[in-house]
Design a protein that fits this description.
By secondary structure, the protein is α/β, with parallel strands linked by helices. It is built from twelve helices and ten strands. Strands 4-3-5-10-6-9-7-8 form an eight-stranded mixed beta sheet, with helices on both faces. The protein has a two-stranded antiparallel ribbon with strand order 1-2.
């Protein structure tokens, strides 16, 4: 005879409670229903599972043997319920997010704070990476997703465009160009500049800008990262070019930022295109995408 789940559930409840009334209380059903089902099981199996004595049910050896087989199954089910609860709650969530250095010191902290408002229990890890390393880290699943400047090309990587940031000229507040509302590459030509290595995105942007006007930048110092460039500008080694918010007011005392024409750099969210995101990771990813669209208002209020 095959026993169904309900019959096993009733049998286990009786084994635990030792009485019909106790089993009915455990299962929140009527006592007659428990009694009928138990008698039906014994009838179909052709054996007694319990002896009745003074209102109590004493399991027979056959009943004890059946219970030894049934109980581990219920322990597994109860463990499964705990596991399902942890999955739904997202206990011990950790997400590893890559970010380019130009965004990691101002934009990433603000964005992480916004994510934590939505997912307060999540633990976030920031991996600061050069833009050219983003595809490798995502494709090898060393990070969950990345925030990059410029489109990232890789067969296992998907880059979704988000918002964009303007390029700005960063220079000492008493520099002759500091009072201008907007500058062009023509304006900064002839002034010492803290430049970037040519393989970097900012290095490429500066090279392209000067190529358009047919001039060479007057490079005084060359660096890889925008924070280093701004620190050099603080020491009056030259003006530099950085993304919007890198030299946010108050971050570098003595420096000001002036928009560089209408030059803009797009931000991309980079993820693996052959690995499905968990529900919680997708929530984090989509929250980051939506919040980054509010960056201008968020960082300046």
């Amino acid at each position: 005879m095959n026993l169904n789940f309900r019959q096993l559930e009733v049998f286990r409840a009786v084994m635990i409670a030792k009485t019909i009334s106790g089993a009915a209380e455990i299962l929140n059903v009527s006592q007659p229903g428990i009694s009928r089902l138990l008698k039906y099981m014994e009838y179909k199996m052709g054996i007694a599972l319990f002896e009745r004595s003074k209102g109590r049910l004493i399991p027979t050896p056959e009943g004890l043997e059946l219970f030894r087989e049934v109980e581990p199954i219920y322990q597994r089910i109860e463990g499964l319920e705990d596991t399902i609860g942890r999955i739904i709650r997202g206990d011990n969530l950790q997400f590893h997010i890559g970010c380019t250095p130009s965004l990691s010191n101002v934009v990433a902290p603000w964005l992480f704070a916004e994510i934590k408002k939505v997912m307060p229990d999540v633990m976030l890890k920031l991996e600061t990476l050069p833009n050219e390393a983003m595809a490798e880290y995502v494709s090898q699943r060393r990070i969950d997703f990345a925030i990059a400047l410029g489109e990232v090309s890789h067969p296992l990587v998907q880059a979704d465009p988000s918002t964009h940031l303007r390029l700005q000229v960063v220079l000492p507040e008493d520099h002759p160009l500091a009072s201008r509302e907007q500058l062009t590459f023509e304006d900064i030509a002839g002034h010492p500049i803290v430049n970037y290595f040519p393989e970097t995105l900012l290095g490429q942007a500066i090279r392209d800008g000067f190529d358009e006007i047919g001039k060479e930048p007057q490079t005084a110092v060359m660096v890889r990262y925008a924070d280093d460039a701004c620190a050099m500008a603080e020491q009056r080694l030259g003006l530099t070019v950085a993304l919007e918010y890198t030299a946010i007011p108050g971050r570098y005392p003595g420096l000001v930022s002036v928009p560089l024409g209408d030059v803009r750099q797009s931000i991309y969210f980079v993820r693996h295109n052959e690995v499905s995101m968990s529900n919680h990771l997708r929530n984090c990813f989509e929250t980051a995408q939506s919040k980054l669209a509010e960056i201008h208002t968020g960082l300046l209020t």
